[in-house]
Amino acid sequence: MRGWFAAALVGLALGAVQAPAMAQAEKPSDEKAKTETKPDLPPLPEDKTVDQSAVIGGRTIRYKATVGSLPVRDEDGKKIADIVYTAYTVPGGDVDRPVTFAFNGGPGASSVYLNLGAIGPKHVPFGDAGDSPSDAPVLTDNPNSWLGFTDLVFIDPVGTGFSRSLEDAEKTKKDFYANEPDIKYLSRIVYDWLVTNKRLRSPKYVIGESYGGYRAPRIAYELQTQMGVGVKGLVMVSPYLDPAAIGDETALSPLPWMINLPSMAAGQLEREGKLTPAAMADVEAYTRGQFVTDFFAGRADPVATQRLETKVAALTGLDPKIVDDLDGRIDIGTYLRETRRDEGRIGSVYDSNVTAWDPFPASADRNSGDPILNALIAPTTSAMVDFVTRVVGWDIDARYHALSYEVNEAWDRGTPDDKPVADLRRAIANDPDMAVMIAHGWNDLSCPFFGSQLLIDQMPSFGMKQRIDLNVYHGGHMFYTRDDSGAAFRQDAEAMYRR
What we know:
Helix content: 25-40%
Shape: globular
Radius of gyration: 23 Å
Structural class: alpha/beta
């Protein structure tokens, strides 16, 4: 996710709580051990399974819901973390039944959004216009769940959900809060779940949302080449794929503006009741062509500049004076505030047509959180904790982190890289049977669909028909919360699984 929690979290500072530096020779071994290990935490409960059922796709499916944990061990075999997962499995099947491993993003997000919003057997309303933090967090059957064609395992990385590090802050950051170790230990968790549950022969799939879309291709390649586990298919939902390509909106490159403009136009088209694939095809054609030409012409060509500003104002619905003042370069914050300025409302970076009241409308600067991000914490947290503790009976005395700002702040981002795209290329080049689907919502400005489209256009053919499908649905980052989009997403995924 651009900005990692997207624009809503811009401004989070890097860095974890650092332990005082001290030379090893000056520290007795017992004191050193104390500084490198957290105080003893009570053990997590034993894995717990309950029988449930849900009406999915028009038929009743009976399944087992399990909340459990798997350890992460260092190279000496010492346990350094507990990873909590939620699994839904349909009994009576054999090892040929697919199993899908799901990851959300952030970094710092638990898997609750894919679980209770997209593909799990139960869901809770969040992320749509009209949803409120005080709405009752009651789970109901999810008609768009994927459980009809695959078992599901939702994994919470360290610091999210109930998953926890057993190390101090400095070691935790080194071992878990960075791109490379994140891929390594999560891939091992997938392997360990397969071995523990005797499912190594099952067709295996990985789905990741947002920064989970950064994780997914890299985990698939790690499993394929290092863990000895083949992955049959990848699904990336609103993925954050190539931070190196996006760059800075103050840079010379037109890419940031190109990537954002179609999603801004989609928001305006939806407000006008005109959002169709054909209309968006025209927007994309303009963005690839005349927009780039006029962008590079710059102020040296007044005709090109005026043409660009007039077109951008028409596409975004913004006041032409604002577009003129910004030379046609519309940043996300301006778009989200100015398109609803006359209503006193602000759009969400995750879906520009989901809005909230501006608490400080007279302020020159925006002084509010994101309408979706702020509203989804309460229903998802309450619903998940109630499910785990009351329904499943996995009793735990700990806080559940649906979104952890602490993890996000401590994350070592390193240098922006193209490793997800590189590992995706390697994985599908190495396995001609691996299927890939990328899914986006038209209105998403945190991870706009056009960024993925431009990346796919540059993929080699690998000597065969292109094997990456890009599906774009009505809605935003969490398009699946809209019933029609969730149903279409499920149908497209099932077709891929049965291919």
